[in-house]
Predict the structure.
Amino acid sequence: MKQWTQDEALDFYSINRWGAGFFTVNQQGNLSVLPERRQDGPQIDLAEVIHEMQQQKIAFPAVIRFHDILRSQVKGLNQLFQKTIEKAKYQNHYRGVYPIKVNQMREVVEEVVDAGAQYHFGLEAGTKAELLAVLAYNTNPGSLTILNGHKDQEFMQLALLGQKLGHNVIIVIEKLSELTLLLETAQVMKSEPTIGIRAKLTSRGSGRWADSGGESAKFGLSISEILQAVELLNQKGKLDWLKLFHFHIGSQITDIKKIKECLIEGSRIYCKLSQMGVPLTYFDAGGGVGVDYDGTRSASDSSVNYSLKDYVENVVYILQEVCDGENVSHPIIVTEIGRALTAHHSCVVTNVFGHIPIYKTDLELQPSDHLILKNMQELLQELSQQNFQETYNEALVLKDEGISSFKLGFFSLQERAQVETLFWKICHAIDGLAKQARYVPDEIQKMRNSLSEQYLCNMSVFQSIPDSWAIDQVLPIVPISRLHEEPTVPCTLADITCDSDGKIEKFIPTSAQHGKLMLHSLKPEEEYTIGIFLTGAYQDVMGDMHNMLGRLNEVHVFTDDDDPTDFYIEEVIPGNTSAHILSTLQYNPHAMAQMIKKVFDKQIQAGKMRPKEAVQLADFYEQSLQHYTYLKNF
Ligand SMILES: *Cc1c(COP(=O)(O)O)cnc(C)c1O
């Protein structure tokens, strides 16, 4: 075991890069959380949190939510805008909203509202269910309630109901027909709504969601439609309703250049509309601020080439410059930043419960006269740095021939085993040679990936990190302990679903070698726990129940105000039981238990089982229905 310093661990797992100052490694070699982003501030040792969870019998996998991080992010965003506005002498203020689709958990929404109270921070909804939640939970006086998404009449009625509750509701028109619907509904309800208009910009974002912007976007009005909307409102004498100008060009915008282009275009449209007499007062730049998941600070899909500060400065200064140039007074700045606000505050922790070792065999190779086997032996003997690619191709052909011979009945089981063993020996030898090679062809790299060890993790990729499966999102994965020990095992991760997609094979670059994640070797007596970080945005609420693996146990951790090195688990939300998952799919767990009992009764009657054993087993079945869907780790 090679000793490792804290700095080596921080650097290797890029913790300072993706962690945004919220995570570090402590003296004990454990990953810990700095809720105030200060080394001299409060610190929560994650290994201690896990220890506490085990004392309380909270099983893996579990979501750990750090409300202090969430608060810190909300305050940080608002303060950044305040400071920048002051410095720029911008002549208006900031009124942000949190789009709850990013993480609709009630506790998350409550925390955001509470932390944002002093800044009049509001909420955004995009569907009726979200709107129902927002109407009840946006209690901050002076804050905005912004409504995006496609709307029907009921949506409009709820929005106007919100206005009557005293909320500052702004209904954003996504398509022209919504305006007609709103005019009609408002007339019936005798309301004077405030409306916004979402523009389709020609500037687009960058990264995976670039198609959310641009002229063919699913949402928003083209410039000519905006002019039509203005005309319609004018005709009805309701132009004074139109107060907000909005655009949102997609999530995780990776390149600051794209953000600038959109801000310039958006500001220009805002000014031109103002000059036409539209009484706009709000400029809503939407969301899309990305998170540096892989710590590379680049415009790659899992990263961003800018900081939140860069973003805020661009919004304030670009808007100011364009407005000043056009002689338009400075609007109230609105943003709908979601991902960048919530990603850091939660993580998934779980145990590695086993591993699938690299294919190895100690099979004694009997000398064989068979030509295929002889040729393979020769390939292995003559393998060199110069010929490994050709050797690989030839070995593949020979292996296929060997298997065909077996299928045709010309090969014994022993001979087939020899072909496979020789093939893997050649692959391992090639892997060794490729390590020193300047260039490794794709097919050899693929073969090398298949040689890695797999660590089996007690979780479901589909429930906990769906983006890893769906869009190859890279998330930081770090062992919770042993960070003062150099990790020596290159591996990929596999989950407990019966789906061959249930695996993680892409990792942040610094923590991987030849594409494989470096972790510590497993010890038989010691549980090995890993954390998957930055899961607080989207991942938390998008997961599905593939293989009937349900929602995770969840703990909410707070720092202790009296002792900066201590913490407490404020709330435990139990994950789904098997019975719960079964009921959501129309099963009746109670009836199922009865069905099982009946079959056991028949076994007893037929004299095949003793009553005592049958009752015990029936009870066991019934109890199992009430248990957690994941593997038990204690
Ligand atoms: C999803 C969404 C957001 C949030 O986007 P992030 O990338 O999470 O910041 C903001 N506004 C609208 C209209 C959205 O649909």
In short: Residues 413-436 form the longest helix (24 residues). The CA atoms of residues 49 and 507 lie 25 Å apart. The radius of gyration is 30 Å.
